[in-house]
Amino acid sequence: MSSEMLLPAVGENEAPFWEAAAKGELRIQQCAGCERLRFPPRPMCPRCQSTESTWALMSGGGTIYSFVVPHPPLLPQFNDLAPYNVILVTLDEDPTIRLIGNLVDQVGDKINAVDPSSIELDKPVQVVFEQINDDIHMPRWLRV
Amino acid sequence: MLKDATAIVGIGETPFAKGLEPSECQLASEAIVAALADAGLEPSDVDGMASYTMESTEEVEVAKNIGAGDLHFFGKVGYGGGGGPGVVGLLAMAVATGRCNVGVAWRSRKRGSGQRPWAGAHAQVTPASAWTRPWGLLRPVDEIGLLTRRYMHLYGATRDHLANVALAVRKHANNNPRAIMYERTMTREDYMKARWISEPLCLFDNCLETDGALACVIVRADRARDCPHRPVYIHSASQGLPSQSEVMTNYWNEDPMRGPAWTCAEGLYRSSDIKPEDIKVAQLYDAFTPLVLLSLEGYGFCKRGEGAEFTNDGNISIGGRLPLNTSGGGLSEAYVHGFNLINEGVRQMRGTSCNQVKDADTCLVTAGEGVPTSALLLRN
Ligand SMILES: [Zn+2]
Asked: What is the DSSP letter of B113?
């Protein structure tokens, strides 16, 4: 993984997520009016139409909803890693909120380190953060 | 009311190939002129046009090339492969309400020789992709692969069920000289040995990459009866964008398996005399084999979770309960954002398909499941 890797686009909607991630916290946007969590972050609450929001601290726990193992042809930065895993994690706090990520055995491992045949759906995972640069700490997931 | 108020009276298409020489504009113009000739109409009769937002040939250019008359309607429908039947439905509304009298819908694409759409530098086309691509979920096949594995886990579907789809559709293509896979047969072993693209999906779960263009012509039902071919009536048309859904990465709601097909079907049957049990042939959008399983459920041919089982016992082949994608579909005829499914639906209603379903008097044509979608019910 190098500086050429695909970095997340961070706009005003996304910035609080990445600021929290840099502190090792998983935070999800929450309506200041009715407290509904929502993801991906956006300006208005679909339940009460409030445009005020805060960022709620999550436990970092979730379960594997699904996963894929991509093979080439891929973007160059991922071709060299393939086959690797991409998992979709349902957060413990809200079953409608799921995060894309990668399963690793320890922080800093490459995303192709886990044997894909060992990945099981509905198993619990816990978030960890891998520092990529000063601004971006990517969430990855460890099996509990 | 839209019901049976308009009809498709002409279809046209260019050859399909991995690489065609002419520009997308030329291919579009050729397909439209062919569709007009098929309808017994002149290019100067055209006063309405509709296509996909992803279509790169603009009305202005195409209209100039074909020698269209003054246009009174032009419009586009979004979401890529979710668009095809939506484009026809939009144009049918314009024709039915008198906004225009002779409408052409088209799609022209050099996907086979161009860059893959996901290969753009950062490919940040939707806000949601900021939350998926950096972890290596890059391509449509990866995005649908995630839903597929969950589906398999929930309902006990296997690769054999996905193979059922790929094999049935390939067999249909083997009877269709226009199909890219006309001369290429496939066995279950071929399928099982194919290379992975994104596990659990292999090469043959993916559609083709094709250059080509297609078009159809729509007029009001009274005028349709004067055209040379048997009119193919647009009985019902619908679009579906479910509450809290996403484009491709539809992961942020309670039930990602209940996708746009369900919403679209509700609108389709609400204004239809035709119900799923009346439908004897269907063209279901097949950019990926699992989309067919989800669509079988969403459009009411079986219950939730039974789409995989439905593909057994030759059910989706000629002679079965619901022959699917009888020209070879996106998997084996051509992948032109599903427009070939529309033209094949018309051929089935005319009785001129290479894999004609006996006594078929209605045909369902759907757009992409997994994106805001659309569908048509055609009848003869
Ligand atoms: Zn709210």
From this structure: T
- In the prediction, which pLDDT does A9 show? 86
Q: Which of B132, B135, B255 to mutate to test the interface with A (most CBs of A within 10 A)?
A: B135
Segments forming the whole domain that contains residue A15: 9-57
Collect all residues of chain A within an 8 Å Cβ-Cβ radius of residue B203: none
Q: Chain A: nearest CA to B123, how far in angstroms?
A: 10
Number of structural domains found in chain A:
2
Question: Catalytic annotation on B79?
Answer: no
The pLDDT value given to residue A1: 44
CB B374 within 8 A of CB B85: yes
Ranges under pLDDT 70 in chain A: 1-4
A89 and A38 within one domain: no
- In chain B the beta strands, taken as DSSP E runs, fall at 6-13, 48-52, 73-77, 103-110, 196-199, 201-202, 211-220, 232-240, 281-283, 362-366, 373-379
To the nearest 10°, the Cα dihedral for B280, B285, B286, B291?
-90
Report the amino acid identity of residue A28: I
- Other beta carbons less than 10 A from residue A116's beta carbon: 14
pLDDT tens-digit readout, B283-320:
999 999 999 999 999 999 999 999 999 999 999 999 99
| Contact between residue A142 and residue A131 where contact means Cβ atoms under 8 Å apart | no
What is the pLDDT at residue B114? 75
Q: How far apart are CA B61 and CA B63, in angstroms?
A: 6
The verdict on residue A4 lying in a domain is no
Here the tokens at position B163 are 């193979």
Question: Which residues have their alpha-adjacent CB atom under 5 A from ion ligand 1?
Answer: A 31, 33-34, 36, 45, 47-48, 50
Domains plus CATH for chain B? Answer: 6-113+209-224 (3.40.47.10)
Q: Are residues A48 and A26 in the same domain?
A: yes
The reply to whether A70 and A32 lie within a common domain is no
We report the CATH number of the domain holding residue A83 as 2.40.50
Say what the pLDDT of residue B149 is.
98
Low-confidence ranges of chain B (pLDDT < 50): 123-124
Residues A53 and A63 in one domain: no
Given this model, what pLDDT does residue B122 score? 52
3-state secondary structure B273-342: CCCHHHCCEEECCCCEHHHHHHHHHHCCCCCCCCHHHHCCCCCCCCCCCCCECCCCHHHHHCCCCCHHHH
Q: Is B151 a catalytic residue?
A: no
Q: Give the C-alpha distances (Å, rounded to integers) separating A30 from A33, A126, B359.
A: 9, 21, 56
> Do the Cβ atoms of A88 and B146 come within 8 Å?
yes
CB A130 within 8 Å of CB A107:
yes
Are residues A98 and B135, on separate chains, in Cβ contact within 8 Å? no
Residues A41 and A67 in one domain: no
Q: What is the ipTM, given to two decimal places?
A: 0.97
